[in-house]
Amino acid sequence: MKYKRLTKEQFETLHQEFANFLATQSIDKKEWDEIKSNKPEVAEQELDIFSDLIWEGVLTNAQFLEHFSRNHIFLFHCQEKFIQSIVIKSLLSTVDFMNKEGLQWLSDNLFTETVEMHLGNKEYEANRNEAIFNLITEGAILSDGQLYIQINSILQS
Q: Which residues neighbour 72 within 8 Å (Cβ) at sequence distance 6 or greater?
């Protein structure tokens, strides 16, 4: 398996897509039930293959990621050959970006001496999708990129 298996909830959400996936292999509901009962290792393989296909699609389409921690915000723009980052750090240990008050504080103090910002570019060391997947497993989430775009446009002006 290249990535990780989808959760039960994700499989439930993607029920129709999984049925279509099985249909492309000429496996209908009756045969799937038989495979689950009589060949659980084959069923496990099918679940893994489907999970990798879903992850591959999600990662290929990923453009922006965000990772919030208590005193840092990491914003990523996933390009084809490299990833751009904006790292925002509060120099005050009392600020917590994990709550609304911390984000309001950031809005009020973005360009003060209590906030550090760093821009970066890094070429992918391995496969683009694997690099993005690694960021997700470390806590980043897919985003629409609004925060990255807003901060980047402020920094560019």
A: 87, 88, 89, 90, 97
d(CA 110, CA 155): 11
Contacts of 138 by beta carbon, 8 Å cutoff, 6+ apart: 67
**pTM for the structure as a whole:** 0.86
Residue 118 to residue 137: CA distance in whole angstroms: 23
Question: Residue 21: CB partners within 8 Å, gap ≥ 6?
Answer: 46, 50, 53
As given in the structure block, the two tokens for residue 31 are 């045969």
Query: Contact at 8 Å (CB) between 152 and 117?
Result: no
pLDDT tens per residue across span 9-62: 999 999 999 999 999 989 998 999 999 999 999 999 999 999 999 999 999 999
Q: What is the pLDDT of residues 93-139, one digit of tens each?
A: 999 999 999 999 999 998 899 999 999 999 998 899 999 999 999 99
Contact, 2 vs 52, CB < 8 A? yes
Bridge partners (DSSP) listed for residue 117: 88
